[in-house]
């Protein structure tokens, strides 16, 4: 028998502030016999979307009212400290995950080990996200280090997305996007970049300054050409401002037959 299994488990729900973890927390709180819960944990990143920070504040307030411990864990190094060392993250240097976000998980696992316990993480993967699973749904997850309550309950991405579209706390984000990462993410789509420009111009400008400086740094220090999204910071920024902003605006202003004649 794996000696680790003798240790007492600490069940924790990992919440990002996005729709899946929010929905998952609701499922857990309504099924505590099936999904025992000791703590709710948020890995707090400086690059979280502004709306998701408000979601986490609300979750913390409600969890504490329900008598649950809510932990916020920050990476030990700031985004800027790591950026100064490696430049803006990209497909070849994805430090935003390995050195930044996952540093929170390392701290959490260390703390759990120090309690002489073992972690069982509740993760908000849906039933149709099979490719992301480490374990099969329906197996004895008390013998595992994580479990997917949404998948266990057969809840699909579509169900959660449709629910999230109509929750004011998400500030309409899910009316335009299906999932949320970080706001300074190298993999933001053009439409997400337009959303960032529209909702947080200062961060948008900062992001493109960082990307441009990284393009110059790679050329200067490695003699290599790296261009953001294959075209470079200046071109992409210009395209967002001139084309994608209006695409996003048009989508926001779309009406259906039900809106005709109704004041907006
Ligand atoms: S969502 Fe983007 S920025 Fe955030 S950790 Fe993942 S790759 Fe990095």
What does this structure look like?
The protein is of the alpha/beta class and about 260 residues long. The chain has 2 domains: about 10-180, Rossmann fold; about 190-255. It has 10 helices and 5 strands, in the order βαβαβααββαααααα. It has helices at about 20-30, 50-65, 80-85, 95-115, 150, 155-165, 175, 190-200, 200-220, 235-250, and strands at about 10-15, 40-45, 70-75, 115-120, 145. α2 links the parallel β2 (about 40-45) and β3. α8 (about 190-200) crosses α9 and α8 packs across α10. The longest helix is centred in the C-terminal third of the chain and has 22 residues, at about 200-220. The radius of gyration is 21 Å and the shape is globular. It starts with 7 loop residues before the first strand and ends in a 12-residue tail after the last helix. The mean pLDDT is about 90. Bound molecules: iron/sulfur cluster.
Features:
5-stranded parallel sheet; 10 helices; alpha/beta; 264 residues; binds iron/sulfur cluster; Rossmann fold; single chain; globular
- Total DSSP E strands: 5
Q: Report strand %.
A: 5-15%
Structural class: alpha/beta
* CA radius of gyration: 21 Å
> What hetero molecules are in the model?
iron/sulfur cluster
- Tell me the CATH topology of the largest domain: Rossmann fold
Shape category: globular
What name goes with the CATH superfamily of the largest domain? HUPs
- Overall tally of structural domains: 2
Q: Give the strand order of the largest sheet, numbering strands 1, 2, ... along the chain.
A: 3-2-1-4-5
Distance between the termini: 63 Å
Helicity level, as a percent range?
Answer: 40-55%
Q: What does the average pLDDT come to?
A: 92
């Amino acid at each position: 028998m794996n000696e680790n299994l003798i240790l007492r488990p600490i069940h924790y729900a990992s919440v990002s502030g996005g729709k899946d973890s929010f929905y998952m927390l609701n499922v857990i709180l309504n099924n505590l016999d099936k999904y025992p819960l000791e703590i709710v944990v948020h890995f707090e990143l400086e690059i979280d979307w502004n709306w998701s920070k408000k979601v986490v504040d609300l979750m913390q307030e409600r969890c504490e009212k329900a008598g649950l411990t809510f932990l916020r864990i920050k990476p030990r190094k700031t985004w800027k400290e790591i950026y100064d060392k490696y430049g803006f993250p990209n497909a070849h240097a994805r430090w935003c995950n390995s050195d930044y976000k996952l540093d929170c998980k390392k701290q959490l696992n260390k703390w759990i080990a120090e309690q002489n316990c073992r972690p069982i993480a509740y993760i908000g993967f849906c039933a149709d996200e099979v490719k992301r699973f480490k374990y099969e749904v329906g197996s004895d997850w008390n013998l595992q280090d994580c479990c997917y309550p949404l998948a266990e309950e057969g809840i699909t991405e579509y169900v959660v997305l449709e629910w999230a579209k109509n929750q004011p706390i998400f500030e309409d984000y899910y009316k335009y996007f299906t999932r949320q990462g970080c706001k300074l993410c190298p993999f933001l789509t053009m439409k997400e970049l337009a959303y960032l420009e529209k909702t947080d111009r200062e961060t948008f400008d900062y992001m493109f300054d960082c990307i441009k400086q990284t393009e110059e740094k790679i050329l200067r220090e490695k003699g290599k050409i790296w261009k953001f999204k294959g075209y470079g910071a200046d071109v992409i920024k210009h395209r967002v401002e001139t084309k994608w902003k209006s695409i996003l605006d048009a989508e926001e202003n779309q009406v259906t037959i039900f809106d005709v004649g109704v004041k907006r």
